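User: Here's a chain of 94 residues. Predict its fold as tokens.
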Amino acid sequence: EMFPTITRPDRVIVTRWASEPNFLGAYSYKSVGRSFSSDSATLAKPVGDRLFFAGEATAGAWYATTTGAWTSGYDAAVLMIKALLKSNENNAVD
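Assistant: Prediction complete.
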């Protein structure tokens, strides 16, 4: 096994993005009269240190791509780690 110390999942959920009736394979796109980079940056802003957003629509120049979805998830994870570390420092007892 590649990762012998990692527990195997007890179930797997597969999404059917292209046939999901609420999305039908939708992705973000530039709209006339809007600044996509500004809108994307606004969508990516966390709410305090508790709620973080990711997805291709938050990825600026990488909108509408899998790369954008992945990199925005990575960026959101980094922000979460920083928030957790900051919270731990603030809660540390001397």
